[in-house]
Design brief:
- The chain is of the alpha+beta class.
- The protein folds into 2 domains: 70 residues, 434 Repressor (Amino-terminal Domain); 159 residues, Beta-Lactamase.
- Helices cover 35% and strands 21% of the residues.
- A 7-stranded antiparallel β-sheet has the order 2-1-5-4-3-6-7, with helices on both faces.
- A hairpin with a 5-residue loop joins strand 4 and strand 5.
- This is Helix-turn-helix transcriptional regulator.
Length: 248
């Protein structure tokens, strides 16, 4: 319905992440690497063939790495086992043939960390979203108070703090060109990144109106939340306004 998704092309992980990982200052990258792998400065110093004091100066920005150490740092941080899990999730999302996105929450706004081509294409087709998904930019929820119901609930219920297992959301929107009403189901799952930072991984499916109506009746509303004890979390009165539901 939203056009053909681009073909998946396998790419070396180093070519996918070079622009993001190496854009960080070396000290920040090294500190994040140690925190992610629970490695002390002394162990990192042994890996790079330098002193612990040298590592300390790198991480505080008091010293830049020599050309030789920079080569060793790049090799160390580019090893697959040493990359943040979130980088792999970004690659999965960016190159997925499905409607998929990855969000973060900082500075009072929700940011689009990654999105599949099909998700970007879909956002431009719907009246309630366009142009909502721009990778590297905030979602702009304040400009669309009627939209992004599930994302708002995820924030309210602590989803960006890992307090929820997942949120399911049903919503609908009109196609800009034809006015056709399309129904969707989103599943939003918290993902823990490095340095205790949380992300939301979202997938979207197009559903039929009969499925939408059935889920609304089962959930007693448009949103279903569960915690890790498999208990449903009630976060709004049962019922709600079925006609007013727009994007997650």
């Amino acid at each position: 319905m939203f056009g053909q998704s681009r073909d998946f092309v396998a790419r070396p992980m180093s070519t996918i992440f070079m622009g993001e990982s190496w854009a960080m200052k070396w000290g920040e990258a090294l500190r994040a690497f140690r925190a992610r792998n629970n490695i002390k400065q002394e162990a990192a110093a042994d890996m790079l063939g330098v002193s612990q004091a040298y590592i300390s100066r790198l991480e505080t920005g008091a010293q830049s790495p020599s050309a030789d150490v920079e080569i060793k740092l790049q090799a160390l941080l580019s090893e697959p086992a040493h990359r943040p899990v979130c980088e792999y999730i970004k690659a999965l999302v960016s190159h997925s043939p499905y409607i998929m996105f990855l969000l973060s929450h900082s500075g009072g706004d929700v940011w689009v960390e990654a999105a599949s081509q099909k998700a970007l294409h879909m956002a431009g087709k719907l009246d309630a979203m366009a142009p909502a998904l721009v990778v590297g930019e905030p979602l702009g929820m304040d400009n669309r108070p009627e939209s992004f119901h599930g994302i708002r609930k995820m924030i309210e219920m602590g989803g960006f703090d890992g307090q929820l297992a997942f949120i399911d959301v049903i919503w609908h929107a009109n196609l800009i060109e034809t006015g056709e009403l399309v129904y969707f189901r989103n599943t939003l799952v918290p993902v823990r990144g490095e340095q205790a930072r949380w992300y939301i991984h979202g997938t979207t499916r197009v559903i039929k109106q009969e499925q939408y109506d059935r889920l609304w009746n089962e959930w007693e509303g448009p949103v279903l939340c569960y915690d890790f004890e498999k208990k449903r979390v009630r976060q709004e009165p049962a019922g709600g306004n079925r006609e007013a539901q727009t994007p997650a």
